[in-house]
Every structure is written in structure tokens, then in C-alpha cells.
Design a protein that fits this description.
Helix content: over 70%
Number of strands: 0
Radius of gyration: 16 Å
Order of helices and strands: HHHHHHHH
Shape: globular
Largest sheet: none
Distance between the termini: 39 Å
Oligomer: single chain
Length: about 180
């Protein structure tokens, strides 16, 4: 049971630190050193999750590759975070990666980013469509489908916990601005 708590806490912290780094990147007043610190923190946290729970390695690599391919890794915090994750992964070692799932996660993440970008730039009259796309369900539903079909729930729990942290900081960010 303790390992589930560790997975949930690490993933939650990763979600918080990724979003806070993103918030700092968008903030004109934030210092570069603080952005880099949060990048290192989220890179380490994501890697620690993959080190302790090898079944999430494919998920985190897939998400990062999708973001890299779509051009969403921008700014010192994210360069540092992704760099830290991959440097640790290649020096200490990533567990084996499922190439099929990696491709699925990369594609799902790219589609999600494209849909989100489209709905951000265009006025969608149906508010329910906006709410659905803002919740970014494509990757979550993809990982949930994989969990249901394989019976391996660790990646979905990690993503769900990550999302809770990410959403919590998003709400904090809205209140702060």
C-alpha cells in the first residue's frame, strides 16, 4: 500500500511543479534561476517516478516526446526539466519502453495539443465543447483505455495524480492573476 502512496505523491508533486514552472515561464517578473530550479525539480520528480515505478516510463517519455514534437517545450524551465529527466534517465537508466504504447501516447498527446490549441484560438459557441476540450481528456482516456485493456493501472494512477496537481496549480494561478 505504501508504494501506491509514493506513486500518487510523486505524480502529484510532478504535476504541481510542471504547472508552476509553466506559470513562471509565462510570468514576466520571475527570475530565470527560479524557473530553472523548478525545471530541475520537475525533471527529477518525473524521473524518480519512472525509477521507482518502471511502468510509467513509457507514459512520461511519450508525453514529453509529444510536447517536443508539437513545440510546447519552450523556455528555460521546460528545457531544464526535460533535460534533467533525460539526463537522469540515460545516465541512471530507463526501464524498458513499450514502443507500441510510446507511439500511442505520443500521438494522443499531439492530438490533444492540436485540439486544445484550436479551441483556444477559435470561439466555440457550445460551452460544453469548450469545457470538455479544456479538461484535456484525450491522453487521460487513452491511458485509461490501456489500463482497462491490460489491467495495468499504475500509468493511469500516475497520470490522474499528476493532473490533480496540475489543475490545482492552474486554479491557484488564475486566482493569483
Amino acid at each position: 500500500m505504501n508504494e501506491w502512496i509514493i506513486l500518487i505523491v510523486l505524480s502529484f508533486i510532478a504535476g504541481c511543479t510542471v504547472k508552476y514552472a509553466d506559470f513562471l515561464e509565462d510570468s514576466v517578473k520571475s527570475r530565470k534561476a527560479i524557473r530553472i530550479f523548478f525545471g530541475v525539480l520537475y525533471g527529477c520528480t518525473l524521473f524518480m517516478g519512472t525509477y521507482l515505478f518502471p511502468l510509467i516510463t513509457t507514459l512520461w517519455i511519450g508525453v514529453i516526446l509529444g510536447l517536443l514534437l508539437i513545440g510546447k517545450i519552450d523556455g528555460p524551465a521546460h528545457y531544464t526539466g526535460v533535460g534533467t529527466f533525460f539526463i537522469l534517465g540515460f545516465s541512471i537508466g530507463f526501464s524498458s519502453v513499450s514502443w507500441t504504447l510510446l507511439l500511442i501516447y505520443v500521438i494522443a498527446n499531439i492530438i490533444e495539443e492540436i485540439v486544445n490549441e484550436y479551441t483556444d484560438k477559435h470561439k466555440i459557441k457550445q460551452k460544453w465543447v469548450q469545457k470538455i476540450t479544456q479538461s484535456r481528456p484525450i491522453l487521460e482516456l487513452t491511458v485509461l483505455t490501456v489500463a482497462i485493456s491490460t489491467g495495468i493501472w499504475i500509468p493511469w494512477i500516475a497520470l490522474f495524480s499528476f493532473d490533480i496537481g496540475y489543475i490545482l496549480i492552474t486554479r491557484y494561478e488564475m486566482e493569483a492573476t
